[in-house]
């Protein structure tokens, strides 16, 4: 049983509380003793050089790492107070509450409409009227509605890369998650499409908690409230984005954001 | 001074001949002569190798031509709609066609169900390990077992043990086991070709494993599975030996009306007519005519497979 | 957002109360289906072993390894050597046709032909491969045999030569496509290295590509032998049922497969003759199994090379 956001509470409740998380791929320790707090309605950016474990970390938050063979974890990841590794928690339930957008746009080879209603449908909503309302709301929230409203039944693969990525965001929004995990969502997109997604993230953070992994420091600086710097599977520093990019505490963070390595 | 030094160095490293040109260890004339021979040999070989392909092509043409010529005048409406008869001029293959059709009524659902399920199990559910590789090796070995051995299996298990005799059901089940490896292999390949990021998309939406398989993996793999299934069905339709081993009688004058009926099918009829050409020369024409029907059927099936393959070639 | 909250409630509610019955049942159903293939293998082995055992109980070993095969005689004799002889001879003839033609065709497709030619030729090979063997049998008996009788007057109407040749033709696509796969997967820089030194295409093919692809090519030959050994209808129709132990390919010989067909299509009944089918089937099964395993072993070695 998952607790979720309670609207009566104050802003900026703790959504994720990660405590002493370790993760191994076989014998390789990929995440070391991670401690991190993620708060409601904020954009938390995770930056760091390739192979620092940032992608692994975000995939742990909705347990997508389960699908990788030979992964072991220790420690706790509390999601609204519930440990996501607990035996009583159903991973499917967690994932309806925590949406995810991937590096490469991955719409299903179906129509735009079918992509958006995929989640509601597999979770038991079959009323056509509700489904088309969901489609419109989700596509509007992903600022895609105007571009596709006349061709909802066209194949999603006819869309441009940026549109596909926004469709994937709409698909996640359709089941009304609390959190949106974004794993380098603009790395496969051109600057204009990237810009659109960034604007969208700014809009979405009013309603959702967003965790975004990015290798682009300017992007992190532009869109996030909190930035966490990962290096070799460890959290080096987590702080207000403003602080990280102007006056970091750790020398390694400074070296990274000033481009001395990475 | 400097310049002179460097040219001195050059003379030490590169030996020049007395004309002041680079010294060579090769005689250009000999090389050029040899080169001509080598290029000639290359050209001859290319023609020769192409000859092998031409050989295969010519055989194919002769085969079709021979069968076409023998069947001319024998394939007509009467041939397709009359039943077998001891008189060649009255005989038709209506009952034979029905026999082949009913065989497929057994083979198609049984192999599709077993084959696709096996492929899903191996690719989606089985842990990558001993059992999975054991089943895989087993299936590829089954694919190499001669069809006549499947006939012995069918004769013993379906024919005698389950007492199905030489009925359509016994024949259909035997053929199903025979072509199962083809569908499994095609299914596995098609499922493996479904990109992981589509599965991830479904899992990230909270889909369970079965939901992911049902809503994402199978729809994407379907064209590949269908193409493989059609190939498997084509194989089953033309297969003779296992049915003959089951003990299908040589002459059946009744049109089969249930899955428990005795029957004859296109390839069996071709076999018996071919055997009897010594006694009745017209049987060669009838065998040829039946072959034409069989080949047209196979051609249609394969065309459908090609259309499916081309239509659903997806880009991700 | 009230509508959306409503949606959220429905979804959360549904997922909380969902019964995951299908989630539990489906893997089990798939496992059952998957084990059918294992039961098939077990079935084949048991079928052959049990009835072959009855045969070996009734027939002395010395008789089995004799050259006299007369299952329906007054004093029946069950020597398997004529059948093994017939099988090997027809298969050898087939390989004699399939190896040179199939390999050179593969060399042409992989190393000499343009993309467009390949696009035309590959379907032709696929058509050849898709023709049912009964059609080849008819072709051997009604066309190739009469043709050969014109060339070789002593040729009998049923003989080992004609089905051997036609079986070879049937196997060409198998040899060609597997050998071509092996040759095409040789990395291009190996070719370019030799071409840059002034080698001709032929020299590259013979000295670079074939040595690199040799295990894949050998595997295709072994698989072709296995196919020839197990092939039934062509030899049944065109090679006849004479149980002679002879090396004369102009005569009729019987293969193991043809023996099984001859016996079952008649009324086999129960008795030593019936059991002998399974003994022959067992030998045939072992022959082809060894060939298939050998082929896999060879081709796996070649996969490790790149």
Structure write-up:
The complex is a heterotrimer of chains A (262), B (316) and C (306). By secondary structure, chain A is of the alpha/beta class. Chain A contains ten helices and ten strands. The mean pLDDT of chain A is 90. Chain B has two domains: 2-71; 77-311, Orthogonal Bundle (MetI-like fold). Chain B is mainly alpha-helical. Chain B contains twelve helices and no strands. Chain C starts with a helix and ends with a helix. The longest helix of chain C is centred in the first third of the chain and has 38 residues, at 21-58. Chain C is flat and about 90 Å long. Chain C folds into two domains: 2-58; 69-303, MetI-like fold, CATH 1.10.3720. In chain C, α2 (21-58) packs across α12 (272-303). The interface between B and C is large, with 87 and 85 residues.
CATH topology of chain A: Rossmann fold
* Counted beta strands of chain A: 10
Count every beta strand of chain B, where a strand is a DSSP E run of 2 or more residues: 0
Low-confidence regions of chain B: 1-11
Structural class based on helices, strands and sheet pairing of chain B: mainly alpha
Q: Please give the order of strands in the largest beta sheet of chain A.
A: 6-7-8-3-9-10
- Shape annotation of chain A: globular
- CATH architecture label of the largest domain in chain B: Orthogonal Bundle
Overall pLDDT confidence of chain B:
87
Into which percentage range does the β-strand content of chain B fall? under 5%
**CATH homologous superfamily assignment of the largest domain in chain B:** MetI-like
Oligomer: heterotrimer
Name the CATH superfamily assignment of chain A. P-loop containing nucleotide triphosphate hydrolases
């Amino acid at each position: 049983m998952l607790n979720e956001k309670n609207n009566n509470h104050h802003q900026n409740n703790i959504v994720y509380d990660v405590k002493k998380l370790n993760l191994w791929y076989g014998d390789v320790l990929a995440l070391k003793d991670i401690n991190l707090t993620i708060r409601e309605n904020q954009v938390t950016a995770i930056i760091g050089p390739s192979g620092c474990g940032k992608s692994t970390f975000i995939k742990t938050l909705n347990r997508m790492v389960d699908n990788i063979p030979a992964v072991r974890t220790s420690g706790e990841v509390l999601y609204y107070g519930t440990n996501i590794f607990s035996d009583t928690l159903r991973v499917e339930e967690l994932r309806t509450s925590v949406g995810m957008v991937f590096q490469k746009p991955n719409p299903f080879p179906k129509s735009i409409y079918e992509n958006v209603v995929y989640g509601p449908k597999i979770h038991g909503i079959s009323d056509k009227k509700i489904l088309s309302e969901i489609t419109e709301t989700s596509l509007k929230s992903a600022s895609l509605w105007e571009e596709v409203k006349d061709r909802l039944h066209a194949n999603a693969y006819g869309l441009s890369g940026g549109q596909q990525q926004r469709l994937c965001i709409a698909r996640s929004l359709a089941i009304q998650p609390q959190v949106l995990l974004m794993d380098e969502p603009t790395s496969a997109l051109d600057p204009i499409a990237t810009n659109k997604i960034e604007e969208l993230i700014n809009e979405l953070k009013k309603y959702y908690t967003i965790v975004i992994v990015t290798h682009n420091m300017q992007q992190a600086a532009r869109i996030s409230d909190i930035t966490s710097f990962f290096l070799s599977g460890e959290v080096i520093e987590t702080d207000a984005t403003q602080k990280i990019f102007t006056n970091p505490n750790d020398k390694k963070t400074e070296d990274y954001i000033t481009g001395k390595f990475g | 001074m400097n310049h002179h030094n460097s040219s001195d160095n050059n003379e030490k490293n590169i030996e020049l001949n007395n004309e002041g040109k680079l010294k060579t260890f090769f005689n250009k004339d000999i090389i050029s002569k040899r080169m001509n021979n080598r290029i000639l040999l290359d050209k001859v070989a290319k023609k020769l190798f192409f000859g092998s392909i031409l050989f295969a092509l010519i055989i194919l043409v002769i085969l079709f031509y021979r069968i076409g010529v023998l069947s001319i005048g024998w394939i007509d409406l009467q041939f397709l709609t009359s039943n077998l008869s001891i008189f060649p001029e009255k005989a038709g293959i209506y009952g034979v066609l029905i026999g082949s059709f009913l065989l497929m009524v057994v083979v198609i659902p049984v192999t599709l169900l077993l084959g696709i399920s096996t492929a899903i199990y191996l690719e989606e559910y089985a842990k990558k390990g001993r059992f999975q590789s054991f089943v895989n090796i087993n299936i590829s070995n089954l694919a190499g077992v001669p069809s006549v051995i499947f006939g012995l299996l069918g004769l013993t298990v379906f024919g005698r043990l389950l007492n199905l005799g030489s009925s359509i059901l016994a024949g259909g089940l035997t053929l199903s086991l025979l072509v199962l490896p083809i569908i499994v292999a095609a299914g596995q390949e098609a499922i493996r070709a479904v990109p992981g990021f589509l599965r991830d998309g479904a899992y990230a939406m909270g889909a369970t494993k079965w939901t992911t398989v049902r809503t994402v993996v199978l729809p994407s793999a379907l064209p590949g599975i269908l193409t493989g299934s059609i190939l498997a069905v084509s194989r089953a339709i033309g297969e003779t030996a296992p049915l003959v081993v089951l003990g299908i009688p040589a002459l059946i004058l009744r049109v089969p009306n249930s899955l428990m009926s005795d029957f004859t099918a296109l390839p069996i009829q071709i076999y018996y007519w071919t055997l009897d050409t010594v006694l009745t020369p017209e049987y060669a024409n009838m065998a040829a005519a039946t072959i034409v029907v069989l080949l047209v059927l196979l051609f249609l099936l394969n065309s459908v497979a090609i259309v499916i393959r081309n239509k659903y070639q997806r880009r991700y | 957002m009230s509508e959306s909250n409503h949606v959220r409630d429905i979804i959360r509610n549904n997922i909380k109360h969902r019964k995951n019955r299908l989630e539990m049942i489906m893997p089990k159903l798939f496992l059952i289906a998957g084990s059918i293939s294992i039961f098939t293998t077990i079935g084949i082995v048991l079928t052959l072993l049990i009835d072959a055992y009855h045969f070996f109980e009734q027939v002395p070993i010395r008789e089995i390894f004799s050259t006299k095969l007369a299952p329906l005689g007054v004093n029946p004799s069950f020597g398997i050597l004529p059948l093994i002889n017939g099988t090997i001879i027809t298969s050898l003839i087939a390989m004699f046709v399939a190896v040179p033609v199939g390999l050179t065709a593969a060399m042409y497709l992989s190393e000499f032909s343009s993309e467009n030619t390949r696009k035309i030729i590959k379907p032709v090979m696929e058509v050849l491969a898709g023709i049912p063997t009964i059609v080849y049998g008819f072709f051997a008996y009604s066309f190739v045999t009469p043709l050969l009788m014109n060339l070789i007057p002593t040729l009998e109407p049923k003989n080992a030569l004609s089905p051997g040749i036609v079986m070879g033709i049937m196997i060409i696509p198998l040899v060609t496509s597997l050998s071509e796969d092996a040759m095409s997967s040789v990395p291009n820089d190996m070719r370019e290295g030799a071409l840059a030194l002034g080698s001709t295409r032929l020299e590259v093919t013979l000295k670079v590509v074939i040595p690199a692809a040799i295990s894949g090519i050998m595997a295709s030959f072994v698989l072709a032998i296995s196919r020839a050994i197990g092939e039934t209808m062509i030899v049944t129709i065109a090679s006849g049922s004479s149980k002679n132990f002879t090396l004369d390919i102009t005569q009729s010989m019987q293969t193991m497969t043809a023996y099984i067909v001859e016996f079952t299509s008649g009324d086999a009944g129960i008795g030593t003759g019936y059991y002998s089918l399974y003994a022959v089937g067992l030998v045939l099964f072992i022959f082809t199994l060894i060939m298939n395993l050998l082929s896999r072993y060879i081709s796996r070695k070649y996969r490790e090379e790149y």
